[in-house]
TrEMBL record:
Domain Pyridine nucleotide-disulphide oxidoreductase dimerisation: 359-466
Organism per entry: Nitrospira tepida
Function: Conversion of NADPH, generated by peripheral catabolic pathways, to NADH, which can enter the respiratory chain for energy generation.
Protein name: Soluble pyridine nucleotide transhydrogenase
Enzyme Commission (EC) number: 1.6.1.1
Positions annotated to bind NAD(+): G193, G194, G195, I196, I197, G198, I199, E200, G283
Names of the cofactor(s): FAD
Domain of life: Bacteria
Location (main, coarse): cytoplasm
Amino acid sequence: MEAPAVVSTGYDVDLLCIGSGPAGQRAAIQAAKLGKRTALVEKRRCLGGICLDTGTIPSKTFREAVCSLANHNGLLRPGTAVRTGLEGTRRPSVEELFQGVGLVTQRESQVIEQQLYRNGVELIRGEASFVDPHTLAVVSEEGRRTVTAANILIAVGTTPALPPGVPVDGDVILTSDDLLRLRRLPKKLAVVGGGIIGIEYASMFAALNVEVMLVDKRDRLLEFLDRESVDELMHQMRGRRVTFRLGEAVERLDVAAGEPRQAVLHLESGKRIVADHVLYSVGRIGATGRLNLASAGLSPDDRGRLAVDRQFRTAVPHIYAVGDVIGFPSLASTSFSQGRLAACYAFGVEAGPMIEHLPIGIYALPEISAIGAPEHELTQNKIPYETGIARYREIARGQILGDDSGFLKLLVHREDQRLLGVHAVGTGATELIHIGQAVLELGGGLQYFLRTVFNYPTLAECYKVAALDASNKLCA
Ligand SMILES: Cc1cc2nc3c(=O)[nH]c(=O)nc-3n(C[C@H](O)[C@H](O)[C@H](O)COP(=O)(O)OP(=O)(O)OC[C@H]3O[C@@H](n4cnc5c(N)ncnc54)[C@H](O)[C@@H]3O)c2cc1C
Ligand SMILES: NC(=O)c1ccc[n+]([C@@H]2O[C@H](COP(=O)([O-])OP(=O)(O)OC[C@H]3O[C@@H](n4cnc5c(N)ncnc54)[C@H](O)[C@@H]3O)[C@@H](O)[C@H]2O)c1
């Protein structure tokens, strides 16, 4: 390990974290646990970052409400929305759909505040910016103060990317940061950008019987996922009246005059889409614009992101950056780990490197999860593999849950039968994947799944069935 960064009593604190999202929060608590004088600055009223305020937690709480209402109305089965149309089902109000969000975020925010307090982390309310490499100014309604720190951790996250000319008004044209302030459920929703945010929300609104049109400039969506998972996702979404316009770009976006106000999207191909609302989700950029990074001797890239080394150090050794502000993979799950590790590295505590295999969990309807390589990557790298598939419709727990379209696919090396990847689509996929993650990380493979016994009836049984399938193919 390289020499630890500066620790000196000449500063107000040993570590100052900017941002209370997953990355800043975990870094602050880890530093406090190491006995370091730690402070955390947050400019929002809600602690927890966009993860808790407008991102991960609100969207997943909303999804829970969608699932329970859509299940109740029988809308979650592929094709049902098309058959029943709007007439056959009750349209929920947005109040009904959003009521859980405020409760969950408020409770979670309190939990974070208590954790910081219990661990002796000083919470400073206000917006931080650099005065010099060891000094930050914090401005709030109460005024301006400066704080000096031996080490600084930048965990400021991101804001939605908005190309010039996109008239986001938080009413008709929205980003994911405004979406849960919708005042009524749209009949037609246009989604620009089919990344994880666009796909998750498009599929949730489609499950509420909203007609969704999704535009993405790429020809294939979610290219980092196994293609079979994306094909199944798109198949189910099409079954719920989602129209995909792929390989298409928006030339102009207007809000038409008159009531009700509607958005008009003019695509470069000449197509025109009219919608009650537009979700603009074409990626996010680092929220470094107001940090005055130049005073710290740092400069971000053209998407506001900071470059770091393997220990999350920026070009200035006592300044660390973690979470979404450093770019890929930009997940809450990884940000938590990065924050904790960075605090360990800053104080010279052995913590090992970041784990190699990171799980992907996409809370679309259907849910998708993955660990390890997708098939196309193995093919590209000429790695000989075999597949084993278990379909939920042939698994007792799948039948009990009424999910007959889910599946779990194992990819194993043809020669040594090592596990190379797991791809799951359907109910519980994001939880189920962690069995595969453990086996992959511990270097296990087909033999483990063939020998082990799972509770019955569970979705975990998919691993056994998929392993038997792969084994039969390898023996054929
Ligand atoms: C709609 C949506 C859904 C998502 N769903 C998932 C999911 O299901 N699973 C998952 O793993 N990830 C998900 N993510 C990603 C996840 O939210 C982020 O990866 C995570 O929040 C990043 O954490 P962070 O600590 O880097 O930053 P953030 O959570 O963005 O927090 C940064 C904090 O810094 C504060 N801040 C910024 N500048 C300053 C300043 N100058 N002074 C003081 N404070 C400042 C901000 O106010 C904010 O509170 C989702 C994101 C979105 C937008
Ligand atoms: N479940 C999860 O883990 C989860 C959920 C939501 C968000 N997130 C995180 O949030 C981050 C941001 O998500 P995102 O979906 O906004 O970004 P993204 O970068 O993942 O996707 C943006 C999409 O917009 C498309 N696009 C870009 N410009 C366009 C244009 N002008 N017209 C049409 N399409 C265009 C791109 O081709 C891409 O498919 C991601 O990094 C993701 O990791 C994670």
